[in-house]
UniProtKB/TrEMBL annotation, chains A, B:
GO cellular component annotations of the record: aminoacyl-tRNA synthetase multienzyme complex; chloroplast stroma; mitochondrion
GO biological process: prolyl-tRNA aminoacylation
Residue intervals of the Aminoacyl-transfer RNA synthetases class-II family profile domain: 1-246
Phylogenetic classification of the source organism: Eukaryota, Viridiplantae, Streptophyta, Embryophyta, Tracheophyta
Name by which UniProt lists this protein: proline--tRNA ligase
GO molecular function: ATP binding; proline-tRNA ligase activity
Keywords tagged on the record: Aminoacyl-tRNA synthetase, ATP-binding, Ligase, Nucleotide-binding
Length: 448, 448
């Protein structure tokens, strides 16, 4: 997949936000090699089992057959642990908290732009701690960072929770996830955070001397969000006219379309356009003017709707005379979303636009929450689950059945456990599959 | 090579600066796949000849032998042109100006950290234009962006110029370069910008219809700076005590070392330290406090000297009483670089520190310029060149000899033409090798 500039700009917005949060929470960026000796991958048994079917292997380098095949990283736990083992000796070296922005490769046969691609971009955090409790706290902290990002920046009301054993990352003790409902009501796993326990530290001998001079294996986490999230944003908020981007991550928040008919109207209109553009730019608003004469205003209206730009400003000769602009909101189609005669005066216009951007951001999130909630069905029997899934909805119900039962549900309905959500209903529960007591409800859905 | 956090932070500083400049000059970031079908690489004859000895090849994917080998990108001209051919139809689609931040792989047998590594990080710009003149202007503009960056941010007085035909990029008509003199007086090619002419557009059929409805091949450029530049910074400014980082790109500009002996001194010192830290941080200075009790102040002094932090502040009990700090400059060793009794008052301290950072930045550049200029010898015979190179210096002299002569110099002295500098002496010149008239002087040096 080629990521073109507009899509890449959304990824940059994701990076800019998360990079700050990662640093605030004590992580440093660094970079590991992408070629991993095959023997590293084999060291953690469940890891190699999970990843070996989807590896790309370099077998020739500099014109020669290599003695050991190199894996193009599908994820970096193994090479990270290889280095952590060298760097960590004492409790003084802990916690070690790093992140890298990188490309990864997983050999996918059925690809879908942004959602499932052979190569994708992501960040992967890797941390090592002195205790299980610290590692668990870190894993939870990072899924929380992702959850806040999804709600506040991407306006995606993800459901955070814990993966079932069947769906846990190859090599992790626990996987936390944020699950998002797309416009077609399929679930998208939009980010994960793993408590790796001591699985990799045992496989790689990553040990430290604790304060009592005892040698222990470190406790670890890893966590990632990828360019898949860009696909999640597109498929959460889009409509038939195209994308609908949340202002906080929109590469263009406001597009200005100048309108003139006669030649002598142009200079006055363009002067006003340029002045409004500077006003908004100085106020920190991401604004673009499309003054191309190759396209009509009508063509531009459609184009920027398709691109999901939150706000469009039109400025024509009459607006110049009245010192006002026309505003259209992408999230409210047609006349309802239009405002006429909004003053061009910087002291009024900036606040007005900023206010509208905040409203649009909130309104996209509210719409997505309402959509999500109206498409989750509480079920108390397998029959009810089948019905809900057949209707394309998500099913939520008490679950304490076996891995085999979970696989049976998958086989019969194509739905999997997306997560045991952190937010759980109170009171005693009975597993809808077995009738046995259940501690938690699980959410089942078809997914990407 | 693993890039650890401190080195990576220097790379991030390079990215932050260049990213802004690239966008200001009209480029958008995007991302191309890193696996390139082998047949793409073969399309441009000199390109495949230049790169085929250093390719890494993926031959197995998802457990199966691939029908066509995939090249792990050594550079992206071929896949970029494959896509440009789809995107460009008309002069309205031009200029097309993009950049990507990515990893690249070149199978190197003799590696050196940052300078020559099997995998490295870089940015690669790729542009397509309607005319040769536009492409030439773009290639020159970007080498100029690199030159300014080197001087103003990295304090490296690079010499910009044109590569000889022998040293031109495989597939380019012209390669512009910035050449830096390292502390050991070897040359480092620190960035390049290529005028690709129509070489790739002819190989890939990248055509457009011009304003007169004629079909033409596009004119192209590409340009890159890599993590090698981090090595350049280290090897330009370091001394026996370690690194010496220019303030503009130093991850830590000021380190504060608290000093106390008795237990009851600690709280007053730490209160002052914390207040100074906040003052500097709010002023936009990158400041770090090292309050670890596991290390002595003396150990910390050495450590941050080694790390090349431009300014160290010491704050002890007497400083707290006097409401002052002790300042040490990394670029002036010993007592000369120390200032006592500088007021802690924010209104004084911030300006004082900012002033010192500007001075250090300028002083590192001046020192590097003096070093460079005292190590370039003007030569008027091959004997003089041999002598200069044998002394480890750079030789500059008029050159209009053949490619064969250039290769002979390389074989006999290990020196190559680093560039024909843009800045040329006036007046008639005679080639120091052949005695024939020469239009330009060339700079010869041993290089990394």
């Amino acid at each position: 997949m080629v990521i073109r500039p507009y899509g890449y700009a959304i990824w940059e917005a994701i990076q800019d936000y998360l990079n700050v949060k990662f640093k605030e929470t004590g992580h440093s960026n660094m970079y590991f090699p992408q070629f991993i000796p095959y023997s590293f991958i084999e060291k953690e048994a469940s890891h190699v089992e999970g990843f070996s079917p989807e590896l790309a292997l370099v077998t020739i380098g500099g014109g020669k057959e290599l003695e050991e095949k190199l894996v193009v990283r599908p994820t970096s736990e193994t090479i990270v642990n290889h280095m952590f083992t060298k760097w960590i000796q004492s409790y003084r070296d802990l916690p070690l908290m790093i992140n890298q922005w990188a490309n990864v490769t997983r050999w996918e046969m059925r690809t879908k732009p942004f959602i499932r691609t052979l190569e994708f971009l992501w960040q992967e955090g890797h941390t090592a701690h002195a205790t299980l409790e610290e590692a668990e706290k870190e894993a939870m902290q990072m899924i929380d960072v992702y959850t806040k990002f999804a709600y506040e920046q991407a306006a995606i009301p993800v459901i955070p929770g814990r993966k079932s054993r069947v769906e846990t990352f190859a090599g992790a003790n626990r996987t936390y996830t944020i699950e998002a409902m797309m416009g077609d009501r399929k679930a998208l796993q939009a980010g994960t955070s793993h408590n790796l326990g001591q699985n990799f530290s045992r496989a790689f001998g990553t040990q430290f001397m604790d304060e009592n001079s005892q040698i222990e294996h470190v406790w670890q986490t890893s966590w990632a969000i990828s360019t898949r999230f860009v696909g999640g944003i597109i498929m959460t908020h889009g409509d038939d006219a195209g994308l609908m981007l949340p202002p906080n991550i929109a590469p263009i928040q406001v597009v200005i379309v100048p309108i003139w008919k006669k030649g002598d109207e142009k200079s006055a209109v363009m002067e006003a356009v340029s002045s409004v553009q500077n006003t908004l730019k100085e106020a920190g608003i991401r604004v673009k003017v499309d003054d191309s004469e190759l396209r009509t205003p009508g063509w531009k209206f459609n184009f920027y709707e398709m691109k999901g730009v939150p706000i469009r400003l039109e400025i024509g000769p009459r607006d110049v005379t009245n010192k006002s602009v026309v505003i259209s909101r992408r999230d409210i189609p047609g006349k309802q979303g239009k405002e006429f005669g909004v003053s061009m005066d910087p002291s009024i216009l900036v606040d007005h636009i900023k206010g509208r951007l905040v409203e649009i951001q909130a309104s996209l999130l509210q719409k997505a929450i309402a959509f999500r909630d109206s498409n989750i069905v509480d079920v108390s029997s397998y029959g009810e689950l089948k019905e809900a899934i057949a209707e394309g909805k998500w099913a939520r119900g008490p679950w304490s059945a076996s891995d085999a039962d979970e696989l049976k549900v998958k086989e019969e309905t194509s739905a999997t456990i997306r997560c045991f959500p952190f937010e759980q209903p109170e009171g005693a529960k009975k597993c809808f599959m077995t009738g046995n007591p259940a501690e938690e409800v699980a959410i089942f859905a078809k997914s990407y």
